[in-house]
Amino acid sequence: MSVHLGSTQLTSSAHRTITPSVLYFGTPVVLITTRNPDGSANITPMSSAWALGSTVVLGLGDSGQAVPNLERERECVLNFPSADLWERVERLAPLTGRHPVPDAKADRYRHEPDKFGAAGLTPVPSQTVRPPRVAECALHLEAEVVSIRPGAEGGFRIVETQVRRVHAADDITVPGTSHVDTDRWHPLLYVFRHYFGTGPRLGRTFKAQT
Ligand SMILES: Cc1cc2nc3c(=O)[nH]c(=O)nc-3n(C[C@H](O)[C@H](O)[C@H](O)COP(=O)(O)O)c2cc1C
Hints:
By secondary structure, the protein is mainly β.
């Protein structure tokens, strides 16, 4: 049985139906570096990403600069900022590498050809792809684009990438291994348009190797 409560609907003693404007339930922030047509680098902050095996799938809006860059160049770097970098990520938030700025974004975004400079970030060369890595990020995944297809509801693309090389900062790796030290890696999370860090470890899965 359900009871109407204004625009929400109570569906049990503990839950109600809601219509949130976004479904950003909480995923890590990724700074995607791609190559612009003139050879310069763009940085796209995003968070609709997931990994399985060596595949990373990205959800990217059609109106940004990342989609045309990925369609043309077929490569990128997925740079993962730690929580303490949130203010620099937010400096990138109102910027786009797209010129001219699409009408739908014109009131809130401005074109910025130098996103590294605007955010105070440092480019370093990659090893298997042409876009640079972001030095300040502790984890870099160099990746090739495998497929790009339209999302069913329109307005965005689903980009499947294959990771070719992983770089991890010394201070987040377990010395002498390829394991990330989860006591020292603190990814920046994007939760319903707010930035969060992670809390203390709660436990480990039976498959954990560290
Ligand atoms: C923390 C954060 C997460 C975002 N997540 C996404 C996302 O998952 N997909 C997307 O298309 N845009 C996302 N955006 C918006 C893009 O960053 C924005 O459209 C930006 O203008 C893209 O830059 P570009 O046009 O230079 O590629 C996010 C922005 C921020 C700040």
